[in-house]
């Protein structure tokens, strides 16, 4: 199997399993990088020693993050197991990149509101949902019109981390804005339909099973992109959701207009959502479910701020 045929096969296997396009690009990039590192040797001619050598090089020479090394490992394991039908088993002498133990950056409620006050439009509404609903950035971007449940005051998070669905709280302060947003999406969708467009990407193989579903209003993205684009997989021109860079830039600009000196990202608002709920006395299991954490130990990290600074110790200078 030549290199080009190999990559084509990898692409086919990824799509058959309904992995995201982002994962597809990342896996292909790591496989190419691995093959180049080993002098363009075909993977079938290499053993675990060559794989470990590459992964150790990433950790020791390139000083990559643990998550980066793990992504490279996942890509290579996928290649051997799913494409080459050559499961690898355990890796001996693999040196794992160290994962620093960092506590999450949390905003006070005043700081969060100060940042929001310097935002407007879609970016503000999206950030309100990050803070008010505890959404991950990707979950917010992928929201569809039908995911907003006004009757039960909840937001449906479909196919979240771990391929799981969940519900989280719908903030009262965002309800009217969301209704207006849905009306704007409806007008934009109608314009697309009038021009012969109006399709969106559907999860899994729904578009094949229900050919008209990609044009249904409920499936339209809640925060659509300002322009239509051609899907790199199907070749169909459709309207995708806004990009992560759009939200990142908006938050960065808003923070620069305040006196907040903390390192703030979109995930900071999710951290703040969890911490503030715990401060308000909500059960940690409830917070775990709203966040979509698999283990409560992940949610426990937010209890670090509940004891106040320095583990609740009172400084002797204050006596």
UniProtKB/TrEMBL annotation:
InterPro entries: CB, DNA_brk_join_enz, Integrase-like_cat_sf, Integrase_catalytic, Integrase_integron-type, Integrase_recombinase_N, Integrase_SAM-like_N, Tyrosine_recombinase_XerCD. GO terms for biological process: DNA integration; DNA recombination. Residues 102-315 form the Tyr recombinase domain. Keywords: DNA integration, DNA recombination, DNA-binding. Residues 1-84 form the Core-binding (CB) domain. One of its GO terms (molecular function) is DNA binding. It comes from the Bacteria. Belongs to the 'phage' integrase family. PANTHER family: PHAGE INTEGRASE-RELATED, PROPHAGE INTEGRASE INTD-RELATED. This is Integrase. It comes from Fodinibius salipaludis. The lineage of its organism: Bacteria, Pseudomonadati, Balneolota, Balneolia, Balneolales.
């Amino acid at each position: 199997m030549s290199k080009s045929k190999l990559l084509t096969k990898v692409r086919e296997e990824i799509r058959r399993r309904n992995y995201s396009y982002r994962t597809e690009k990342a896996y292909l990039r790591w496989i190419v990088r691995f093959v180049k590192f080993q002098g363009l040797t075909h993977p079938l001619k290499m053993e675990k020693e060559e794989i470990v050598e590459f992964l150790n090089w990433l950790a020791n020479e390139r000083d990559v993050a643990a998550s980066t090394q793990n992504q490279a490992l996942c890509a290579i394991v996928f290649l051997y197991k799913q494409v080459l039908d050559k499961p690898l088993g355990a890796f001996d002498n693999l040196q794992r990149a160290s994962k620093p133990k960092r506590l999450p950056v949390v905003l006070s409620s005043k700081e969060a509101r100060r940042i929001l006050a310097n935002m407007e439009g879609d970016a503000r509404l999206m950030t309100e949902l990050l803070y008010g609903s505890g959404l991950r950035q990707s979950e917010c971007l992928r929201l569809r019109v039908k995911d907003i449940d006004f009757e039960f005051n909840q937001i449906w998070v479909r196919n979240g981390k771990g391929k799981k669905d969940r519900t989280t709280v719908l903030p009262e302060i965002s309800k009217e804005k969301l209704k207006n947003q849905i009306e704007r999406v409806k007008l934009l969708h109608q314009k697309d339909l009038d021009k012969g467009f109006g399709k969106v990407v559907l999860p899994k193989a729904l578009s094949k099973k229900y050919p008209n579903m990609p044009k249904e209003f409920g499936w339209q993205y809640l925060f659509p992109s300002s322009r239509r684009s051609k899907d790199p997989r199907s070749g169909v021109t459709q309207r995708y959701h806004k990009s992560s860079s759009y939200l990142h830039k908006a938050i960065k600009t808003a923070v620069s207009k305040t006196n907040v000196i903390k390192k703030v990202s979109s995930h900071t608002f999710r951290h703040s959502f969890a911490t503030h709920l715990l401060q308000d006395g909500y059960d940690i299991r409830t917070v775990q479910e709203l966040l979509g954490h698999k283990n409560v130990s992940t949610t426990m990290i937010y209890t670090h701020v509940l004891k106040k600074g320095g583990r609740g110790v009172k400084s002797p200078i204050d006596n």
